[in-house]
Write a structure and sequence with these properties.
The structure holds two protein chains of two kinds. Chain A is mainly α. Helices cover 73% and strands 0% of the residues of chain A. In chain B, 36% of the residues lie in helices and 29% in strands. Classes of the chains: A mainly alpha, B alpha/beta.
């Protein structure tokens, strides 16, 4: 375990140092992310100024959702950027280079890219989230803080494992980049609004198939005391860690079977 | 006790047929038909510790597939592999600690970082004890003259320098076996010679067993004692290089363009190897019949436009084996 923590830091550090060889590009990326975040927030503000509420959710509450989702999203991007274009491991045969090292392949792949560019996004989301937290009038207690922290971590894991599942598809099809891109943007959008605005089919999809409703919507029921459950069990508001754990198991099994397939076909 | 034993090793791939056009595409998606490619087909060999073996074959002959099975990347369809008492795909991690692998086409180094950083990272990945690491780094830096560019980013190295670093990277953890997949590809003559000399030295001084695949037969001739030739997944030659020359080197090949397509070609002491339109390939043993005798016989019976006679270099022998098979 200690070896793996040390290795993670070393490999991630190597990536960060490589990245900093191109400081200007790194700076521009960070700047670009902050700008795009600000634009999105502006758009959200403009929309809400016109409509006042979204399905009974106030401006502050929607920004709260947006901040919470974005926080999990940016953590996922920091930790899982290697999954963005995982298919190059297969197309360019880089997976072979991983398999000849005495390390667990998935660990090695994730550790070898920790994308600090997305820290700028995470910091922006923290600011948005803290402001929204304040505006919604939630009172800070130890319980609330712990619940919030668990929610963010679970949300990160749910998004990360979804990425992993979509990246793993490449072990069968060789290419998965487009699918992953689609999933990346879809999950981000889906966490920003209360899912009650969508038709039932989409609500079911976001609860049971791509469970991103557990990243923001259900936990927010607890934090904001909305009591909006769409006919689902009320316990769903505490469901995020359970869903995250289940997703970790499912996605790892999927990854493992993909790797087994790679071992037998090599393509 | 051999260090590597391979018995009845096979690897078959399913290749799905694709038809062209919209309907063809649709029907091949719905009802998928596949062909079986026998990339490696019932291969047997064993290697003793300290051997230097060249593993050669035309593109797609099954070289890389074999190497991938030996290194634990691919699981065989059938057959048995024993590498130092381990089954590579089953004991993948254990196996990787005891082998070194160099892919000539792909570097294992961190592209944007100084060379030394890659070595440091590998030290942690392979858990190499500090004193052993220092000792090995010293040894290879000296032998391969790495010092001038140890702190240069890998992306700025020449191909030859990079290959020297890749070789070091593969050997820092003192592997017992070194697999090299086309280590000299793209290198200039001087760099190739350096790599070859290095491999001989590592083999002699550190008793590292070396298996290398290559398309440059000079590599084989200058480095290896033993040659394994694979063709269409089957081993067609396994033995010494001198023995190969001895066995096939006496044969001469005469390539003749005839003025017209004769239906029947009959010559004494000569084998008709191949025929393509008016061009024929004749092989003869120079101990039995001389080239001038063959040409005299030919010109007496047939009208000839052009002829070439070739003496087999190792390159030529192997090319002929690829083209025509073993005779």
């Amino acid at each position: 375990m200690r070896r793996y923590i040390k290795l993670y830091c070393l490999l991630a550090g190597a990536y960060v140092r490589s990245r900093l060889q191109y400081r200007l590009s790194f700076g521009f990326m960070c700047f670009g992310i902050v700008i795009s975040e600000a634009c999105l927030l502006g758009l959200l503000g403009a929309l809400l100024a016109k409509f006042r509420t979204v399905n009974g959710w106030t401006w502050a509450e929607v920004v709260f959702l947006y901040g919470l989702g974005n926080l999990a999203y940016s953590l996922m991007r920091i930790l899982g950027s290697q999954l963005d274009d995982f298919d190059r491991y297969i197309i360019r045969g880089e997976l072979d280079g991983v398999l000849i090292k005495p390390v667990a392949p998935l660990f090695y792949i994730l550790a070898s890219r920790v994308e600090l560019v997305h820290v700028s996004r995470a910091l922006t989301s923290v600011v948005i989230f803290v402001v929204a937290f304040h505006l919604t009038g939630i009172r800070w207690t130890v319980e609330v803080a712990l619940f919030t922290l668990t929610t963010i971590l679970s949300g990160t894991l749910i998004m990360l494992t979804l990425m992993l599942v979509s990246a793993t598809v490449a072990l069968w099809t060789t290419k998965s980049g487009k699918l992953t891109d689609l999933l990346i943007s879809a999950t981000k959008e889906a966490t920003a609004f209360p899912i009650s605005i969508y038709p039932l089919a989409v609500q079911l999809l976001l609860t049971f198939i791509l469970p991103v409703a557990f990243v923001t919507y259900y936990p927010a029921q607890q934090l904001l005391q909305k009591g909006e459950f769409l006919g689902m069990p009320e316990s769903f508001q505490f469901g995020a860690p359970v869903v995250a754990l289940a997703m970790v198991c499912i996605s790892y099994l999927f990854w493992y079977s993909g790797l087994r397939r790679y071992h037998s076909t090599g393509s | 006790m051999p260090i590597i034993t391979v018995e009845h090793l096979s690897k078959h791939f399913k290749v799905y047929r694709r038809r062209t056009g919209f309907w063809g595409n649709l029907s091949s998606t719905v009802a998928r038909q596949h062909d079986i490619i026998r990339a490696v087909d019932d291969v047997n060999f064993s290697l003793e510790r300290g051997e230097l073996v060249g593993y050669i074959g035309a593109n797609g002959a099954g070289k890389s597939t074999t190497i991938k099975m030996l290194t634990g990347i691919l699981v065989p369809t059938s057959g048995h592999i024993d590498v130092m008492g381990l089954t590579p795909y089953r004991h993948r991690k254990e196996n990787t600690r005891r082998i070194g692998v160099v892919f000539g086409q792909r570097t294992q180094l961190w592209w944007d970082l100084p060379v030394i950083d890659s070595f440091e990272l590998l030290k942690h990945i392979y858990e190499i004890p500090q004193n052993l690491y220092k000792q090995n780094l010293e040894f290879f830096s000296e032998l391969l003259q790495l010092r001038p560019f140890l702190s240069t980013p890998v992306r700025r190295l020449s191909l030859g320098q990079r290959m020297r670093c890749d070789l070091t990277a593969a050997l820092l953890h003192d592997p017992e076996i070194l697999y090299l997949d086309e280590p000299t590809i793209g290198l200039d003559v001087v760099a190739k010679e350096q790599v070859r000399q290095f491999l001989r030295q590592v083999n002699a001084e550190r008793q590292v067993t070396v298996i290398l695949t290559t398309h440059d037969l000079n590599d084989v001739e200058k480095v290896c004692q033993r040659l394994i030739i694979i063709d269409s997944g089957k081993i067609i030659y396994d033995g010494g290089i001198d023995a190969l020359k001895e066995r096939y080197g006496k044969t001469r090949m005469l390539i003749i363009d005839l003025a017209q397509g004769y239906s029947d070609i009959q010559l004494e002491g000569v084998d008709l190897i191949r025929r393509d339109g008016n061009r024929i390939w004749l092989a003869f043993d120079r101990d039995t019949i001389s080239a001038s005798e063959v040409i005299t016989q030919l010109t007496a019976r047939y009208e000839i436009q052009d002829l070439t006679i070739s003496e087999p270099e190792i390159e030529e022998i192997v090319r002929r084996i690829y083209e025509l098979g073993v005779h």
